[in-house]
Amino acid sequence: MLRDEVAKWLEAKNNITNVKPVGLSLLGKKWQGAVYTCGGERRYYLIGTRPIHKQTCYKLLDVSFGGIVPMRYDWFIGGYFEEKEDYLSDRITHPFGNHWLLIPWIIKGEPNSIIDEYEDEKYTRMCIDVETF
Questions:
Q1: Which of 48, 91, 109, 125 lies deepest, with the highest CB count within 10 Å?
Q2: What span, in angstroms and rounded, lies between the C-alpha atoms of 61 and 63?
Q3: How many domains does one find in the chain?
Q4: Which residue range forms the structural domain that includes residue 23?
């Protein structure tokens, strides 16, 4: 499966550990990819076009073992790649084409910080189901 290919590709990268294939779902749409640790921080690399929700952060719910376990932190889209006509030049860097990164909002020394703490208009929180394989 694609998620296994992503995990294998990430395992070959420097400074990336604890790689596991995952599937995520949000509002009926599903993505495959992998969860990994980089710099002591858990991240998700997901294949496909990113969800586009302005002023939105995400709450992750781990559904891997039949239960629903909310994960700490607000999560946000920390980066993405979308194919263009000259995509072939990017094939080495982005072998899976369109993808996006889901990263936790963590401020060192402030473990309970929330992403919109100082915003006048609060973000919408959407739940994403995460299944680890």
A1: 48
A2: 6
A3: 1
A4: 2-132
pLDDT tens, per residue, the chain with 133 residues: 899 999 999 999 999 999 999 999 988 899 999 999 998 888 999 999 998 877 788 887 776 655 555 667 788 899 998 877 666 666 777 889 899 999 888 887 777 788 888 889 888 888 888 888 7
CA 81, CA 104: separation in Å to the nearest integer? Answer: 19
Between CA 55 and CA 58, with CA 100 as vertex, the angle to 5 degrees is: 40
**Within a 10 A sphere around the Cβ of 133, how many other Cβ atoms?**
13
Q: What is the pTM of this model?
A: 0.85
What count of other Cβ atoms lies within 10 Å of the Cβ of residue 71?
Answer: 14
Write the single-letter amino acid at 9. Answer: W
